[in-house]
Write a structure and sequence with these properties.
By secondary structure, this protein is an alpha+beta fold. The chain is built from five helices and seven strands; from the N terminus they run E-E-H-H-E-E-H-E-H-H-E-E. The strands form three sheets. The chain has a three-stranded antiparallel sheet with strand order 5-7-6. A two-stranded antiparallel sheet has the order 1-2. Strands 3-4 form a two-stranded antiparallel ribbon. Helix 1 runs antiparallel to helix 2 and helix 4 packs across helix 5.
């Protein structure tokens, strides 16, 4: 999928990966400026201090590598110096450089929103059947949340117990409604932190 242009400031999206003049619908490409955001400036200014203080509070042990990597990748998201794609209009010969994104899951709001939108579209178009769906939320005590945050095997075991109990409950409810051979299914999304970036393991189910 590439950009197409009818004029230097008008763009459309071509489905066949060819650049073609825009017809009825026009889009204006405005590159993101992630470095001007408040969150980007805060992370850039205080990241090293945060990592040092976090290590000091853990008896010298640094934060897990994936946490530090998430923050550092966020600082390079949308930066041309970290790589880019070049798009060229076959009509007017205009070229645009589009920087790569960090594809982060937590800190970068732009990448997280794009991932969330793509996942929602996939679930609606390809996964969920045309039946009533309800959201179920599994929350856990604080001490257990920290254990699950670091122990993936334990986390999978806990989620497995809960989903078996949930689907069993739904099957019993179905039998009471006259559905004897009903089959259930669920989609699980794990929430890893709260609004204050605190560790908060909970699971949200669509079943």
């Amino acid at each position: 999928m590439q950009l197409a242009s009818a004029a230097p400031d008008q763009y459309s999206v071509s489905q066949d990966s060819q650049l073609e003049p825009a017809s009825a619908t026009h889009f204006t490409y405005e590159p993101r400026q992630p470095s001007s955001g408040v969150l980007h400036q805060i992370v850039k200014m205080h990241l090293e201090t945060f990592l040092q203080e976090a290590a000091g509070g853990r008896d010298g042990d640094p934060l897990p590598r994936f946490i530090e990597k998430e923050f550092r990748n966020f600082l390079t998201c949308g930066a041309l110096g970290r790589g880019f794609a070049r798009f060229r209009c076959s009509a007017c010969k205009l070229e645009r450089l589009v920087p790569f994104s960090c594809k982060g899951r937590c800190v970068c709001g732009s990448c997280a929103a794009r991932r969330m939108t793509a996942l929602a579209a996939h679930l609606v178009d390809e996964v969920l059947p045309l039946v009533p769906v309800r959201q179920w939320v599994l929350t856990m005590p604080y001490r257990l949340r920290y254990m699950l945050a670091w122990d993936h095997k334990l986390c999978r075991a806990v989620l497995g117990v809960y989903i078996r109990a949930l689907l069993g409950f739904l099957r019993r409810q179905a039998r009471r409604s006259g559905i004897l051979n009903g089959h259930g299914g669920a989609v699980t999304v794990i929430q890893r932190f709260g609004s204050a970036l605190n560790v908060m393991r909970c699971a949200r189910y669509l079943a």
